[in-house]
Protein: Thioredoxin domain-containing protein
Amino acid sequence: MNRLSKETSPYLLQHANNPVDWFAWGDEALQKAKAENKPILVSIGYSACHWCHVMERESFEDQNVADVMNEHFVCIKVDREERPDVDAVYMDALQAMGTRGGWPLNVFLLPDSKPFYGVTYLPPQNWVQLLKSVNNAFVNHYDELANSAEGFVENMVQPETSKYNLTSSESGYTIDALDQMYEKLSQNFDTQKGGMDRAPKFPMPSIYKFLLRYFDITQNPAALAQVELSLNRIALGGIYDHAVGGWARYSVDDEWFIPHFEKMLYDNAQLLGIFAEAYSLTQNSLYADRVTKTISWLGSEMLGPDGGFYSALDADSEGIEGRFYIWKKAELQSILGDDFDWFSKLYNISAHGNWEDGYNHLHLTNYVSETAKAAGIYSDSFEEKYQNALQKLAEARKSRIRPGLDDKILASWNGLLIKGLTTSYQALGDESIRDMAVNGGRFMLEKMTVNGKLWHSYKNGKTSITAFLEDYAAVVEAYTGLYQITFDTLWLTEAVRLTDYTISNFYDTADGYFFFTDSEGEALIARKKELFDNVIPASNSMMAQNLYVLGKILDRQDYLDLSDKMLSKMDKILLADVQWVTNWAALYCQKASPTAEIAIVGENADELRKDFDRFFIPNKVVVGTETSSQLPLLENRTKVNGKTAIYVCYDKTCQLPVNSVEDALEQLG
Structure:
């Protein structure tokens, strides 16, 4: 076993038996490289990464390959989920080299940690050849490598405002600009299969977040049509686990059919919120079903005993990608018995299979009732029979060898999940969802917060790694969401505490954005800022949203001004290519139309809030109290006619209080 056997990261532990003399990222490895004047190989991946497993099997488990690596390099293994700061720096370097990013990410550094070359997956013969070539270049052409590395570092340390020419806009926030963003985004819609016009297809939740808010403002039917088409296909296709719920990371094709089968917490966290919002707007029962079943799956398979949620389920089991989720025809016949004939018509099950090696993967393109009617198998009892059949498959899967579980608990992803749960509770009103959300918040507060500061990772009862901006941003959003479904001011107090900490320790006054790393954290060769929204929104766009919402709730003009400063500088990118800044665009929607401030006062505050929350009103903040409160939006607010009152306000100017949700909705227009 190598040094990684002492680590807690499941990904690093996967490599603990490799003949490669791996180090974890840290001073020991970096000092060794300097002392021995050896180049560094940093290999970055994550536990559910299929091609990371392949490269490990082919190269890192091979003694001959390991001998070459050990002889010429100081080899460092990094879990990108534990150290997103390290990953961001060297992924940026790889892309500056003109190479498309991905994982495994293998980057070669000089002994001073400056990168000079990088690749993603390579088969073993190419990998060994590259190792020898890099060693030759290091020995015989060091000056050229050093010059090259210096250029990459100069690119990395350039401020984002300079790199992307970001300057404050004085044009304000207009519906016309939103229309331009929508038109630009729509040019890349897949209007036949949903999502964007590319493969592989990633869910990209912040795109739908923007489209839902854009529709709320403009009532543009094409925007809602694209949301519904996309969410329907994501809900019905093979990217969704039909047996127990939950979504895989992405579809390898453009049909949402065959996924990369790993299930990541961050995808499911965000999709909960999107499907819940879409349900509030459309009342489509398919969306409510997917939210309910995914929450059930999360509770049964991803929830740790201490109250935090695990990170991921692997794609592979029994040496086959997706084996846990796919079926041979004979297996289904045995499990389903008399239900097999109609079920096989529903899902086009065959001996040949619809995927590799005779396997079938469950996949629909239309509502199950419509598909059943088209196949001539619909009956009055169909829905009950269908759910029973899925339950049989779920039970049968329990006897299979499970995919690997990445059981580290990350503050950022748990924050995303808590927020997804708060939105799901607002849409569905199921008290068990609120309980799960509150328990998640208490876990964050009690287990991952020490002396008012967050930690990034938690495992085996211990926290590790100084938290990053993504952690603070996601947890602040979670706490703000928890306040708005509980009216417990504890969550606001904690949200403000964490927000003020980020302003003190992450904010760069020179260009008006937040660094990704804490000023008290480890210093790398570059201190990056995350501006572009991807599968997970950028931590800066999340912080800008947090500052806006907290500013509205707490009447904190300093928060509002900071949020406005951040968003106004994104104006040029928003109008040029909005698909990479859609979480920023969602915030733009809130600023382009008035934000409703809803204050509820009286004994039935929670009951009225619950009734009010069923409706899709994305541009609002909600505060409440059963008695009285010092919160600015609740000061001097009282019951009316002895009954709980709802105050509908805009910019702290309120209309006459009302006693019913129906009357309040009329005031909202």
